[in-house]
Design goal:
Blueprint lengths: L14 H15 L9 H10 L6 H10 L15 H16 L9 H19 L12 H16 L22 H12 L35 H8 L9 H13 L11 H14 L8 H10 L15 H13 L29 H17 L5 H14 L15 H15 L5 H13 L14 H12 L9 H14 L12 E2 L3 E2 L2 H17 L6
Antiparallel strand pairs: 1-2
Length: 527
């Protein structure tokens, strides 16, 4: 479900517990999860499924979210995928009579002019590397090819003429070509690929493993619409139509990259609240649902996605802290011998996944000394320590901001590997203290309530001796959170990695609540 306005009560004193209960109630009310719409995913529905209800609203969303510089999405390389998707979608709408709508066809054409110019002049020639986002090495070449094909058909605008769009520096077509060969062979395909079905080779349509789960392909509206194709063909899958109809209705037309996100949302929200002691009275419906999501290889964010160590670890940690522990043996399938992979065959590694693994294994190690979890937890802690950057922070592949990664790692080290890590935690605290903005916030591009909450968690949640100037830093941060309370609970800045950046509304609300509770525990009640 996409983001909706949320009424926020006073967060002082007993109000924290009230907000915690309201978060729990919101998860029950919206079982699909509450997440911001995606320009990328919405653009794919404009192009591939104009027959779906809400087409006009999706077009309006693309027009309304174009930046002044002609691009879409976040700054720098993060703008490439949403801009490619929006440009291709708007071009497709112009090429098909009636799709763009006569009253706004001129607006669509102008948006394409600016978008194509931005791609040619900046996004596809920038020295900044393309961020490590799911499916990016499949999405970018596919959309470039589609845009080129639409541009060469001829158009009135001079901005549309010119050489073919180049691949971004450092990116190749090797992965896309390898996936094409794999699909042609008819052999097993990694389950994670179905999440980006909309940009796969046409041979994906006939692959025997490409089948909907709970009405969806890869838990993605775009992937599902691409798999469905013509909705009027005989024997169309009614469950798939139902999934798509619900997805577009929930957000009034625009859609997120992944829906539903119930397991992910519930695990992160309850884990955040339980970590700081404001998760009392959680309904058994939520804890039972999380426990049921765990199988032999752990839990998945959503049906149709592969199980992964990150969702599994946070689910295990949340259940343990809520008094319903489940043995963490399913996590061991992701142990590489040095660290834990997010899923089998992962390219790269995630520090936040390993921080969450440390929390899950560390909790059980303390209570089951005869099991091997303690040794594994120590090894993971060492791997995390080695990943600290020179300035004292950590960065990660699942979130754009270093404040999320640093908060995740320091929380796990402080609780489950305190011996010998004090100096590393002090460096992290000093980095956070020294990077506060003048308005009291923290943020990668600009200050946000989400990143400010993570910064406060680092400052106050590590158990380290107070650092010089901490009182003033916390006071300014709390004043910022008070002044930007609505921004921290509604349509926030997308920072989380999927095919596009997204904002998980309730997860961020839980992070802010946890930070405020920590300020009270440490004697900083706020204004």
């Amino acid at each position: 479900m996409t983001a909706a306005p949320v009424v926020v009560p006073d967060l002082g004193g007993a109000g924290l517990a009230v907000v915690g209960r309201e978060l729990v109630a919101a998860m029950l009310d919206n079982p699909a999860g509450t997440v911001s719409p995606s320009v990328y995913e919405t653009g794919r529905l404009v192009s591939d499924a104009p027959w779906l209800p809400g087409h006009a609203e999706r077009l309006c969303h693309l027009l309304a979210t174009q930046r002044a510089d002609g691009g879409w999405g976040a700054p720098g390389g993060y703008g490439l995928v949403p801009t490619l998707s929006a440009v291709e979608a708007l071009l497709s709408a112009l090429r098909t009579p009636g799709r763009a709508g006569p009253p706004q066809a001129h607006r669509v054409s102008a948006a394409v002019d600016r978008g194509v110019a931005t791609l040619r002049d900046r996004l596809l020639v920038a020295a900044e590397p393309v961020p490590d986002m799911p499916g990016v090495d499949l999405i970018v070449p596919a959309l470039i090819d589609r845009i080129d094909a639409l541009l060469v058909e001829g158009a009135p605008s001079p901005e549309w003429h010119g050489p073919a769009l180049p691949m971004p520096p450092g990116m190749t077509r090797h992965r896309a070509e390898a996936v094409g060969r794999l699909l042609a062979s008819g052999g097993p395909v990694p389950e994670k690929l179905w999440h980006a079905f909309e940009v796969l080779d046409r041979r994906a349509r006939t692959h025997p493993r490409a089948r909907p789960v709970s009405g969806a392909i890869g838990a993605s509206p775009a992937a599902t619409a691409a798999w469905l194709g013509d909705p009027a063909r005989p024997g169309v899958d009614r469950a798939v139509l139902g999934y798509l109809t619900e997805a577009v209705a929930s957000g009034g037309g625009p859609v997120p990259c992944t829906t539903p996100i119930a397991v992910f949302e519930r695990a992160w929200v309850l884990g955040s609240l339980a970590r700081v002691g404001v998760a009392a009275g959680v309904p058994v419906e939520l804890t039972a649902g999380l426990a049921a999501a765990l199988g032999p290889t752990g839990a998945a964010t959503s049906p149709g996605l592969p199980t992964d160590a990150d969702t599994t670890a946070v689910t295990l940690f949340a259940l343990a802290r809520l008094g319903r522990p489940v043995a963490p043996d399913s996590l061991l399938a992701y142990d590489t011998g040095t660290h834990f992979c997010t899923w089998q065959g992962e390219d790269g590694a995630s520090v936040t996944t390993n921080a969450h693994v440390l929390e899950a294994l560390g909790w059980h190690a303390r209570r089951s000394p005869g099991r091997p979890h303690a040794d594994v937890a120590r090894r993971v802690a060492g791997w995390l320590v080695d990943g600290q950057l020179a300035d004292g922070s950590w960065t990660d592949r699942w979130h754009a901001s270093p404040y999320y990664a640093t908060a995740s790692v320091t929380a796990s080290l402080a609780e489950y590997a305190p011996g010998g890590t004090g100096g590393r935690l002090d460096r992290a605290v000093d980095w956070v203290r020294d990077t506060q903005r003048a308005d009291g916030s923290w943020g990668l591009w600009a200050g946000t309530p989400e990143e400010t909450a993570y910064a406060l968690q680092v400052l106050l949640g590590t158990g380290r001796p107070p650092r010089p100037g901490l009182d003033g830093v916390v006071r300014r941060a709390l004043a910022y959170l008070d002044e930007h309370r609505d921004e921290g609970t509604g349509d926030g800045v997308p920072l989380w990695h999927d095919k596009d950046l997204y904002h998980p509304v309730l997860i961020v609300r839980a992070a802010v609540l946890a930070a405020r509770h920590l300020t009270q525990l440490s004697g900083h009640p706020g204004r």
